[in-house]
Amino acid sequence: MTDFTQLGVKDIRDGVAGGDFTAREVAESFNAAVAAAAELNAFIVTTPDHALAAADATDAKRAKGEDLGKMGGVPIGMKDLFATKGVQTTAASHILEGFKPEYESTVSQNLWDAGAGMLGKLNLDQFAMGSSNETSYFGNVSSPWKKDGTNAAMSPGGSSGGSSSAVAARIAPAATGTDTGGSIRQPAAFTGICGIKPTYGRCSRWGVVAFASSLDQAGPMARSVEDCAIMLEAMAGFDPKDATSLQMDVPNWEAALSADLKGKKVGIPKEYRMDGTDQAILDSWEQGKAMLRDAGAEIVDVSLPHTKYALPAYYIIAPAEASSNLARYDGVRYGLRDLPDGAGLQDMYAATRAAGFGDEVKRRVLIGTYVLSAGFYDAYYTQAQKIRTLVAQDFEKAFAECDVILAPTTPTASFPLGSLNEDPLTMYLNDVFAVPASLAGLPAMSVPAMVNSDGLPLGLQLVGKPFDEQGVLNAGLAIQQRAGFEAQPEKWW
Amino acid sequence: MSVTREEVAKIASLARIKMGDEELDRMVPELNNILDWVEQLGEVDTSGVEPMTAVIPNSLRLRDDVVDAIPETSGGRREDVLANAPAAEHGFFGVPKVIE
């Protein structure tokens, strides 16, 4: 009998469509795998009935000879940042504990319309603020991977750490993620899976709990480039309910996948060779160049001179937007209310937000409030937005000389949970290679490249021109085919 | 630039987050570390550079001028809007008394 949990999106979709097995069998297998993996803490709530109902609908359609959709019969995990009608949506925060939206996010609705079902809502860093999945109100998520010879729980990355852990552990064939400054790519790299953040505006932000609206972008996380292409097609599309939604057709990325890179130029940004980057990461980068050369591409040096300023600029812009977005949590309209005895309205706001937000969220709201405050706005926020322009211009110039950029996804492999907690800054540095593409709104993907000497996965990052998800996916496919990444975490949960 | 304990207390109050002494003590050095680090942005010559306003060029659309064009964001959904309110009364959001 097929072990359905080893199958990815494409195999499940094609197997169900071809009648090799039913969607219900697949959903039951994954529901059981989810139920048996509580130790990973990847899910905040599980929704086995949702997965079964979607599967039954797909099987019924097949019996009638109807089209099953792009994701027909595929059960997925939904990052708990997407509003799901009638199903608790928390952003991994206490302030939204118990919140059951009366509406469905556009991205999740698109997935259900494409035939997917939901295994549950995936844990994440609180309000997507974090790089290790240690800021969730609902507890840390563990990576299924362990460092060779040790038993310490490892970080699945963040903020989409429930997503990465679930997909790597094969308790979900794919999951949604969101990426504000690396939150799809860094966890994908840490867990040996693929994840793509499309061009800003491809996926609707409607119904996604807002963190930093000018940066937030949803995307798929799955175990292959093909699976990411399929799922991104299902997620993306113009949405009149999102003012920044791209009014463009969704290309057929899956059909146009090609690992033949003849005539393509791959840029290697010299500024990404930073102090503190693991030697193994640099080695994997070299291997990536060789793989893309082997696929027919020409490797060229490019320069992104403002790279070192991208991360500090991000840590002004993202908190500034967060402080504004999170002002909505006031204990009045939804979510937690903390009303001390005899308290007035202002006291209620302050008490509610003190009780409902975790430390990292408070830190970022305070930073954001400070940099936007009178007297500091120009020195911090305006300067950061000018640097954002320079970072975007760097990419524009580089893309005059190349078609796609190859870089590491992260400066290190995963680390044990609790090992970087001392200082928020060291944690921020995890996203040093991921943030520039976010600031420029560009499509960017992480694909697994190899395992290091500790047995931990390393990822390579591809960054493309605006709207050129295809170029990113194709280069990713060329790496996937040559890297032959087959490693799986040994089951301990 | 660094912030004092009093300034952090002021910012917390502006952000409507109640903070006790211990939390303030912890927050001050953490915020100062972050602010010291972002200070490096001052090195960059940004004269003549426009601050970014839209990352992907996109002109703002006008929706069709019709009532309830998009049902999810239109009127007539009072019960849905109030469904998650911690204290909904008589079809309104309830708040502590604000007028003496």
TrEMBL record, chain A:
InterPro entries in the record: Amidase, Amidase_CS, Amidase_dom, AS_sf, GatA
Superkingdom field: Bacteria
UniProt xrefs under SUPFAM superfamilies: Amidase signature (AS) enzymes
Keywords of this entry: ATP-binding, Ligase, Nucleotide-binding, Protein biosynthesis
Reactions accelerated catalytically: L-glutamyl-tRNA(Gln) + L-glutamine + ATP + H2O = L-glutaminyl-tRNA(Gln) + L-glutamate + ADP + phosphate + H(+)
Active site per database record: K79 (charge relay system), S159 (charge relay system), S183 (acyl-ester intermediate)
Similarity section: Belongs to the amidase family. GatA subfamily.
Function recorded in the entry: Allows the formation of correctly charged Gln-tRNA(Gln) through the transamidation of misacylated Glu-tRNA(Gln) in organisms which lack glutaminyl-tRNA synthetase. The reaction takes place in the presence of glutamine and ATP through an activated gamma-phospho-Glu-tRNA(Gln).
The protein's assembly and partners: Heterotrimer of A, B and C subunits.
The name this protein goes by in its record: Glutamyl-tRNA(Gln) amidotransferase subunit A
Name of encoding gene: gatA
Automatic annotation (TrEMBL), chain B:
Annotated function: Allows the formation of correctly charged Asn-tRNA(Asn) or Gln-tRNA(Gln) through the transamidation of misacylated Asp-tRNA(Asn) or Glu-tRNA(Gln) in organisms which lack either or both of asparaginyl-tRNA or glutaminyl-tRNA synthetases. The reaction takes place in the presence of glutamine and ATP through an activated phospho-Asp-tRNA(Asn) or phospho-Glu-tRNA(Gln).
Family: Belongs to the GatC family.
Key words of the record: ATP-binding, Ligase, Nucleotide-binding, Protein biosynthesis
One family name in Pfam for this protein: GatC
Reactions it catalyzes: L-glutamyl-tRNA(Gln) + L-glutamine + ATP + H2O = L-glutaminyl-tRNA(Gln) + L-glutamate + ADP + phosphate + H(+); L-aspartyl-tRNA(Asn) + L-glutamine + ATP + H2O = L-asparaginyl-tRNA(Asn) + L-glutamate + ADP + phosphate + 2 H(+)
EC number(s) on file: 6.3.5.-
Signal peptide (UniProt feature, chain positions): none
Name of the molecule in the record: Aspartyl/glutamyl-tRNA(Asn/Gln) amidotransferase subunit C
Source organism of the structure: Qipengyuania polymorpha
Subunit structure, as described in the record: Heterotrimer of A, B and C subunits.
PANTHER family in UniProt: GLUTAMYL-TRNA(GLN) AMIDOTRANSFERASE SUBUNIT C, MITOCHONDRIAL
Superkingdom assignment: Bacteria
Listed HAMAP family: GatC
